[in-house]
Amino acid sequence: MVHEHSIEPATATVNRLSVRNIRKKFGSLEVLRGISLEAHDGDVISILGSSGSGKSTFLRCINLLEIADDGEIWVDGEHINMIKKHGRNVPASSKQVDHIRAELGMVFQSFNLWSHMTILQNVIEGPVHVLKRPRAECIAEAEALLEKVGIAEKRHAYPAHLSGGQQQRAAIARSLAMKPKVMLFDEPTSALDPELVGEVLRVMRSLAEEGMTMLVVTHEMNFARDVSNRVVFMREGQIDCTGAPAEMFSGESSPAFRQFIGNFRG
Amino acid sequence: MVHEHSIEPATATVNRLSVRNIRKKFGSLEVLRGISLEAHDGDVISILGSSGSGKSTFLRCINLLEIADDGEIWVDGEHINMIKKHGRNVPASSKQVDHIRAELGMVFQSFNLWSHMTILQNVIEGPVHVLKRPRAECIAEAEALLEKVGIAEKRHAYPAHLSGGQQQRAAIARSLAMKPKVMLFDEPTSALDPELVGEVLRVMRSLAEEGMTMLVVTHEMNFARDVSNRVVFMREGQIDCTGAPAEMFSGESSPAFRQFIGNFRG
Amino acid sequence: MDFVFILQTMKTLLAAVPMTLALFFLSIFFGGLLALLIVWMRVAKNPILSNFAKGYIFVFRGSPLLIQMFLVFYGLGQFGFIRYSFLWPFLREPFVCAVLSLALCTAGYTAEIFRSGLRAVPVKEIEAARSIGMSGFLLVRRIIGPIAFRHALPAYSTEIVMMVKSTALASLVTVWEVTGVAQRLISQTYRTMEVFLCAAAIYLILNFVILQAMALLEHRLSQHRRAAPRLS
Amino acid sequence: KDWKTVTITLEGAYAPWNVTNPDGTLGGFEPELAKYLCDQMKVECKLVASDWDGMIPALNAGKFDVIMDALSITEERKQVIDFSIPYANTHAGFATQKDSPLANAAGTGAVLKLTPGQTGIAEVEAMKTAFKGKTIGIQAATVYAKFIYDNFGSIATVREYKTGAERDLDLESGRIDLAFDDAVYFGTTFEKANGALVFTGPEFGGTIFGIGEGLGLRKADTDLKAMFDKAITAALADGTVKTLSMKWFKTDVSP
Amino acid sequence: MWIVEVLGFGQKGWGGLLVAGALMTLCVTIVALLIGAILGTLVAWAKLSGGGVARTLGNAYTTVFRGVPELLIIYLVYFGGSGAVSAIGRSLGYEGFLGLPSFAAGALAVGIISGAYQAEVYRGAYLAIPKGELEAAEAIGMHRSLLFRRIIAPQVIRFAIPGIGNVWQLSLKDSALVSVTGLADLMRTSQVAAGSTRQYLLFFIAGGCLYLILTSLSDRLFNRAERRANRSMPSSFGQA
Ligand SMILES: Nc1ncnc2c1ncn2[C@@H]1O[C@H](COP(=O)(O)OP(=O)(O)OP(=O)(O)O)[C@@H](O)[C@H]1O
Ligand SMILES: Nc1ncnc2c1ncn2[C@@H]1O[C@H](COP(=O)(O)OP(=O)(O)OP(=O)(O)O)[C@@H](O)[C@H]1O
Ligand SMILES: [Mg+2]
Ligand SMILES: [Mg+2]
Q1: Do the chains contact at E132 and B111, CB–CB below 8 Å?
Q2: How does the entry describe its membrane topology (chain E) (predicted)?
């Protein structure tokens, strides 16, 4: 267990994802105040933290939906190039942005399925139009994926006709279809009822078992404890403490984290 | 603990709410297949059940947002009169419907605050315009209520400017302002994040302590176990089993219920 | 009722329907293209472009089409530099001018309609697309365009119906479509009501057909909004 | 019916027959003639402006009693309204740009009196060769339109305008080569064009375009027609029409 | 400098008449909008809640008055309406002509058209009210008239404001057609001035500019109303 306020050196080796000293301000509000993190092959990292601590912003900075004011990001060893424009950080190449994003799967809290497409169309959209792969091949893979997350029979339905848990699983399938190197999950279960939570967690667990690298922002302590191999606790835009779940939940953590999990009777 | 498939006789005594053999079809889909229930003064009844089992429909039938095809309802001893029109059940008197509804408070899952009114205006709307009570008096009471649910400082804000938990509490205050005999809650916490859930449950708990009769459709097992004095488990439009929470959660319940709470490690 | 006269009138008016339709389709087509350009400028970050688009929309929505058409047709010809430019062979033609001013006008309206469609595209669905690596034209073509178009469709149907009626003004610039022919018939026969009722019937039928077609399109594009098919 | 007041309508935008002054009052040849006629008949006249498009139906609906708007007396119009005797009869002619090759066609400056149905006129035949392939602008649905179609429809492109004013703008800009219309109307147009436009070929007069311009009246009001006929006869006899005509048209349009 | 003189307010200037025309246009449009508001509410109500017959009539109204050229409707009202009034007058023993005044006929005609568009606006606005808010009102025992007055009407007005702004814009321009009734509105005044002076381009441009001024004034008014009505919404909600 480390109290992590120092900067990790980013070694561009087998690291799937490497983030160094990310900072982000919204106006005068400093939301991220220097975050560093590394994820290796097969890592499942749970990111915990109270509301407003900057968890979503952190994920959004990684896949460049927000541009960090400062810091470095490597995805699968590739460094994301930034230049300064009018005193603000902007990506040097929008081609690289698209390409990096295609390697990072993002599953949003509110699913964000495209409402004008069926589930199958949602899933093949990226492979066919972004990766420009043959349609027939993509459909076959998409059907296998939908099978895997357990909603194959809904493939011709529109998102609005699916329950929340089904939509969430469709969103996961959509991300997986891009064969990302790393998956980012933003509170994948918080809008679901207990039964649906179970379904989604089951899918994520099987992904973890297959060795997918994942960053998961979650309020599900059970998931953090039982599935992930590392827990990161964020507080006021910084990493307050991090460590293996067994250590963290057994009490060897910061006082803030102990207070945070106070209500949790695991 | 009773397996409840028989019809309870409706004794019009101190029962706040009494429902006998309610049935409801949507088209060919039989959503409620004969439900009976009694709630006495101070009862807090949790209604559990998986998605689609008819919980919401049941609450909506009680306050006549849906008209049951069959069955009897008494509110505070008063029988709701129905007549047949074109072969369908309709309330005999719309005056009675308005009057009954004023005695039943309903808190919707999606709050349904009136978006064009401030929180205070939302709360006094019913007392002033439906109960026709003096405005000044209503305002004083409303402010006390808002104080009680902890959002007094937001009274001049519009619903859209409040967080989910604040909106939910405003909706509760709006219902309470009508001084209902019975409160119906439809999943009052399912759209909230874990911290807000706590706030809302705290308010409900204090209502329970004051002796308010409540029917609560919920997914919060902790609430069902710790706050309510009776648990009803619905399954496929029927009451599968019912009983005191202690008995139900300790395993003396139907196999379906045990499976339902399987994931719950209270 | 003088049926012979009405029949004769109908025959005369129907002969002008192709002209009305030609004006309509061409101006809707070019107006739509222009509207896309205007709306692109309107939402652009560049203040020069967006202010130009704002001004364009203001002028063409804010003044009567009659005046616009008059100025395009009779006004442009007053300027020597236009009369001696390469454009004159085109602008000399009344039909071209009629289509041009109809298209300019509808582009102003249509741009506003498309913009409200754009505003209705959920930001989150755009983010989802970005997060799989979509950007630029691909994003517009696959996600933003279809959603915005679907949302704009009802308002756009209304605009299209108004365009059918607006073609009536083309007789001002010597393009004789249905209303112009009707007015000419009236000044020959002085039977205002009969002739106008015939014209009205033609427009009503045209618009009814167009509205039905648009409703069909709307129906086809809103599968995802309808209730799910019953699984029985 | 006892006529004490009579409502007369005119367009107020057809210089120099009738115009609106910047202060909103009506002026021109017809309002001044109307004043004389009403004084003759000892009735009070009210002049109201209204739109040309709705004039004849509005007369029959009873919105006013008389139309005085350079209304040519024609058979078609006689089917729906009645006319007084004519108070003017103007010539018609071709106009073109001053430096156009079509200017100064044979017979320019002459006046040709024609009767209805007359064919084989030498001057017209000459113009047909001169105007071959050109574009002639006319005001739609006028007596002149028929004349142009009958004589030039086969050799030239005829373009119909809703109003003469629009046609004149196109003549100036060169979209059309020739225009055919009322000669006194052209008089004002030429004045505004500062000499850029001129007549070409002879002016056409006689009864070919009808017997002239008269007042439009409802068929039922025969008594009113009789009163106006009498007043117009007087105005023609004592030279009032001629005086007003010289004032406004710089030529005599008395029938 | 003759332009200044011709468009000015002096003895030879048409400024006064043009401004009077603009005011007339404004009056016709305002009255038409009010007539349209009444008709539109009735038709929207018929289309939403009426039985089969009312709904069919409502649909017919909106289809016909949106689908038929405006000019024709103005003719129908102007001449047809006068005919009707005269017939009533005659049956009461009044001889002679009893017409709808030009202003009334023009405003009524434009109002009828405006009503068809407003009906659609109100219908859309009603459908935009979250269903839950209506249920919440029913659930505390509001009866229908109270529900309409307290919950539906205020929200319909709020949602309808942008749409009404568009209808206003349409009516402003439809009112240009009432000149066939002889009403000296802005369009006809421009045409009269153009015909009397033979300065067509000048007066059409002047007329166009006056229309644009009317538009920008009313735009400002509607934007303010929209902001006011949306004060209960988050600031980003659909605002321009
Ligand atoms: N686009 C933005 N503009 C301004 N402030 C923002 C923006 N996005 C987020 N913030 C602010 O940044 C802070 C962190 O937000 P963030 O969404 O990252 O929190 P979070 O940890 O994901 O919280 P939650 O658990 O509630 O989702 C919050 O105070 C939020 O108000
Ligand atoms: N208005 C309606 N028309 C047709 N079917 C309906 C209607 N309302 C509900 N249903 C159906 O009735 C069944 C029960 O619905 P209900 O909303 O009562 O379930 P629930 O127990 O509240 O579920 P949840 O926990 O998901 O809210 C569902 O299958 C639903 O599809
Ligand atoms: Mg978040
Ligand atoms: Mg429910």
Answers
A1: yes
A2: Multi-pass membrane protein
Q: Who among B116, B175, B178 is closest to E232 (CB)?
A: B116
For the domain that residue B103 is a member of, what is the CATH number? 3.40.50.300
Per DSSP, what are the bridge partners of residue D13?
D19
Pocket test for ligand 2, best of B50, B55, B236 (most atoms within 8 A of CB): B55
d(CA A257, CA A50) in angstroms, rounded, equals 10
User: Please, what are the domains in chain E?
Assistant: 2-229 (1.10.3720.10)
In a domain, A8, yes or no: no
The answer to whether residue A218 is domain-embedded is yes
Higher pLDDT, A88 or A18: A18
Dihedral angle computed from the Cα positions of residues C134, C138, C144 and C150, in that order, rounded to the nearest 10 degrees: -140
Answer whether D48 sits within 8 Å of E182, measured CB to CB.
Answer: yes
The residue whose C-alpha atom lies closest to atom 1 belonging to ligand 2 is B26
Strands D157-161 and B104-107, bridge-based pairing:
unpaired
Amino acid identity of residue C95, one-letter, is F
Interface of D with E in 3-32 (CB under 8 A): 9, 11-15, 19-24
CATH number of the C3-222 domain: 1.10.3720.10
Pairwise CA distance, residues C45 & C137, whole Å = 16
Q: Give residue A13's pLDDT.
A: 44
- Chain C from 48 to 87: CB within 8 A of any D CB: 70, 74, 77-78, 83
Q: Which residue minimizes the CA distance to atom 6 of ligand 2?
A: B26
Q: Is the pTM of this model over 0.95?
A: no
**pLDDT higher than threshold 80 for residue B194:** no
Give E59-65's long-range contacts (Cβ < 8 A, gap of 24+).
E61/E115, E61/E116, E61/E119, E62/E116, E62/E119, E62/E120, E63/C204, E63/C207, E63/C208, E63/C211, E64/C204, E64/E116, E65/E112, E65/E113, E65/E115, E65/E116
**Domain map of chain C by residue range?**
3-222
pLDDT tens column, C74-117: 888 777 777 777 878 888 888 999 999 999 999 999 998 999 88
Atom of ligand 2 nearest to the CA of B219: 25
| A118's tokens | 């069926």
B98 is a domain residue? yes
Domain with A49, as residue range(s), is 15-263
Mean pLDDT over the full length of chain C = 88
Whether B9 is in a domain gets the answer no
Each residue's pLDDT tens digit, C33-80: 999 999 999 988 899 999 999 999 999 988 889 889 988 888 887 777
CA distance D128 to E218: 56
Number of domains in chain A: 1
- SS3 for chain C, per residue? CCHHHHHHHHHHHHHCHHHHHHHHHHHHHHHHHHHHHHHHHHCCCCHHHHHHHHHHHHHHHHCCHHHHHHHHHHHHHHCHHHHCCCCHHHHCCHHHHHHHHHHHHHHHHHHHHHHHHHHCCCHHHHHHHHHCCCCHHHHHHHHHHHHHHHHHHHHHHHHHHHHHHHHHHHHHHCCCCHHHHHHHHHHHHCCHHHHHHHHHHHHHHHHHHHHHHHHHHHHHHCHHHCCCCCCC
Q: Which atom of ligand 1 is nearest to the CA of A49?
A: 21
**D194 — phi, psi (to 5°)?**
55, 45
Using 50, 70 and 90 to split pLDDT, how confident is the model at B8? very low
The residue whose C-alpha atom lies closest to atom 28 belonging to ligand 2 is B52
SS3 D37: helix
- Comparing CB atoms, the residue among C62, C65, C179 nearest residue E212 is C62
